[in-house]
Each structure stands twice: as structure tokens, then as C-alpha cells.
UniProtKB/TrEMBL annotation:
This is Large ribosomal subunit protein uL4m. GO terms for cellular component: ribonucleoprotein complex; ribosome. GO terms for biological process: translation. Pfam families: Ribosomal_L4. Residues 117-164 are annotated as: Disordered.
Length: 287
């Protein structure tokens, strides 16, 4: 198909090039306009009838809008489902990069490995260094001391020793992983935003019933405050499918692991302030 397109373009451009090479002055403009008149009409028709993609109309990415939910049961008409929150597209509409998520998750899992596995080599095993039997004359296999890895009770050959499994990953890669993970949850409709995470009382059963009504099983609640509200933390401590965390302690692994993420306004502000584009002052010009 591409070769056919090249032949058509060559056939159309060859007469035009001949005309430009042999005619000069006003006649050249008339000849070139007559050759490209049909192509000009086709291009005009296409531009008038075909819709222009939205991302080509404006160089700016449109913001992301999400409906605001409520953890507490609504009181009358105090809460409306039509309330929406505007999110920064640089943080919550980032292109999905599975390779970045893999790097961040692997980096986190490597950092939590204990690395305390240890075995004794033949130099660490207790025993004498005397040769077990003579080298020759017995008709059996030759052996050295009793700490040989071939013998029962001897040392371990190439066994594990305590070491550090943690790997290095650049800070900007981790920040990109947070943007990708948040954007992926937005695209999957698995990200919720609430005004706050305050929960009156510490009864686990009441919180469990409320989460069943909202359909928020296996949910991670993230607060932008210094500490998670005490009421929610106390009520959710006995629920296996609920976990709470602060925005500063959140990892990319947590965003990938939990099927649903719920942020409060403080957490949204924290992520936009930390992961958003840096504010650059306009350059001052001296005249």
C-alpha cells in the first residue's frame, strides 16, 4: 500500500516539477495552480468535513473531573452527587508506563527484603582439619577434612550470606511512578475523592455497613494530614479489606496492590503540590 502511494505521489509531482522547471514568471503561477487545483479542493473538503481531534485544538491538557463521594452517611440534602472536583492532569492523567510501574514495585520489594539468610561454609563448621583417610591404598574415594561440603555435617557450598538486597532508583522515576499509578486508577474508575476521612465513633460494625453500602471493599484510604483521623483508624483496624495511610507514606506498590483508592482533599492537594509541575516565575527582561 505504501509503494502504491509513493507511485501516485510521484506521478502527481512529476508534471508540476516539469512545469516549474520550464516556465517562469506569471505563467508559472498559472500552471502550478492548475496542476494543484484538484488536490487543493480535496484538502479543503477534508478539512471542512473531518472532525479535528480535541488534543490538536489546544496545546493544554484538559483537567480531570471526578465526582465527590462521602464517607459519612448524607444528612438530608446536605450532600449532592453532582459535586465534582478538578484534578491536575499532569498528576492524574499521565500516560500509562508499565515499565515505570515495574521498576518502582521491584525497587520497593527489594527494599523490604530482610537479607538475613545465612549458612556456614566449610571454614565455619566445627571440626578438625585432619585428613579422614589416606589418599591412596584404600580403594575408596579421596577425601579431605570432615568439613567438606560432600559429607554430612560439613559446610554448605555457595550458600547464602547476609546481604543488602536494596536497589537504587532515581527520585524522578519514583515520582513518575506515582503519577502513572494514580492515572491508572483514574482510568479504571477506581479512584475516589472525599472531602475528609473523619468517622464519628470507633465502631467497626458501623463502618463495615457503610462500606458495604458504598461498595468499597478492598479499599485504601489516603489522608493528606500528618496522621490518619483517629476515628477511621480505630474503626478500620479490625477490617481485613481496609487499610489507611498518609500521603507522605504512600508507595507505588500500595497504589498497584489495592483495587480502590480513596483520597481526601488534603491528599489531593499534597499530590498536586509534590508531583505537579514546578511553578516557574516569568523571566524578567531589562530594557
Amino acid at each position: 500500500m505504501f509503494s502504491a502511494c509513493r507511485r501516485v505521489i510521484a506521478q502527481v509531482s512529476r508534471p508540476a516539477s516539469r512545469g516549474l522547471s520550464t516556465i517562469s514568471g506569471p505563467e508559472a503561477l498559472i500552471a502550478s495552480s492548475s496542476v494543484n487545483h484538484a488536490a487543493l479542493n480535496v484538502s479543503l473538503d477534508v478539512s471542512l468535513h473531518e472532525p479535528v481531534p480535541s488534543h490538536k485544538l489546544s496545546p493544554f491538557t484538559p483537567p480531570v473531573y471526578l465526582s465527590i463521594s462521602s464517607l459519612l452517611p448524607p444528612l438530608g440534602d446536605a450532600f449532592s452527587a453532582e459535586n465534582v472536583v478538578e484534578l491536575d492532569p499532569h498528576v492524574f492523567s499521565h500516560p500509562i508506563r508499565r515499565d515505570i510501574l515495574h521498576l518502582c514495585v521491584t525497587h520497593y520489594l527489594d527494599s523490604i527484603r530482610q537479607g538475613t539468610a545465612s549458612t556456614k561454609t566449610r571454614g565455619d563448621v566445627r571440626g578438625s582439619g585432619r585428613k579422614i583417610r589416606p589418599q591412596k591404598g584404600t580403594g575408596r574415594a579421596r577425601l579431605g577434612d570432615g568439613q567438606s561440603p560432600m559429607l554430612r555435617g560439613g559446610g554448605v557450598a555457595h550458600g547464602p550470606k547476609p546481604r543488602d538486597f536494596s536497589t537504587k532508583l532515581n527520585r524522578k522515576v519514583i515520582q513518575m511512578g506515582m503519577r502513572v499509578a494514580l492515572s491508572a486508577r483514574v482510568k479504571e474508575n477506581a479512584l475516589g475523592v472525599v472531602e475528609n476521612l473523619n468517622w464519628t465513633g470507633g465502631k467497626t460494625k458501623q463502618l463495615d455497613n457503610r462500606l458495604q453500602e458504598l461498595g468499597w471493599r478492598k479499599t485504601l484510604f489516603v489522608s493528606g494530614l500528618e496522621h490518619v483521623p483517629q476515628g477511621l483508624q480505630k474503626a478500620s483496624s479490625n477490617l481485613k479489606y481496609v487499610q489507611t495511610s498518609t500521603a507522605k507514606d504512600l508507595k507505588v506498590y500500595d497504589l498497584v496492590k489495592w483495587p480502590r483508592i480513596v483520597l481526601d482533599f488534603a491528599a489531593v492537594d499534597w499530590f498536586e503540590r509534590t508531583l505537579g509541575r514546578p511553578a516557574v516565575d516569568p523571566r524578567a527582561y531589562s530594557l
